[in-house]
Amino acid sequence: MEFVKPLEPILIIDDSKEIRDYLSNILVELGFEEIFESENFESAKALLIDNPPNVIFLDIELPDTDGTQILEFINDHYPSTHVIMCSGHNSLENVQNTWELGAKGFIAKPFNAKKVDTVLKRIEMIA
């Protein structure tokens, strides 16, 4: 199944450059072109204003704020944006909490291309 483009632009918010690069490479391999990156919420705010993304990959644990607070902000200000939470801690509580706060997906780190592809296809079905 090929993706149609309404999932773009895509924003990756993660403090780890290695994770951002890895995820960006996976997205490019999946055929996406309009990919933006941010290492924290402050720099992500400008990207949100200039070019609101359709999908955001959001790290739960960021140095400047908690990912769940960002999720609430995005849901309040950009309700049509689909947020996929990313975390190295995929406890049931963590996953349930992000779903209850409105996340449309959850990927546990370390992730791979298949997991990213699967979550994006699921989002595309509800988009």
TrEMBL record:
Q: Which SMART domains match?
A: REC
Query: What Pfam families does the entry give?
Result: Response_reg
GO annotation (BP), single: phosphorelay signal transduction system
List, for all copies, the residue spans of the domain called Response regulatory.
9-124
4-aspartylphosphate found at: 59
Coiled-coil stretches are none
Superkingdom of this protein's organism: Bacteria
**Which key words tag this protein in UniProt?**
Phosphoprotein, Two-component regulatory system
PROSITE patterns from the xrefs? RESPONSE_REGULATORY (PS50110)
Q: Which SUPFAM superfamilies match?
A: CheY-like
Q: Membrane-spanning residues where? A: none
Signal peptide (from-to) = none
| PANTHER family noted in UniProt | PROTEIN PILG, STRESS RESPONSE REGULATOR PROTEIN 1
The identity of this protein, by name, is: Two-component system response regulator
Question: What species is this protein from?
Answer: Pseudoalteromonas amylolytica
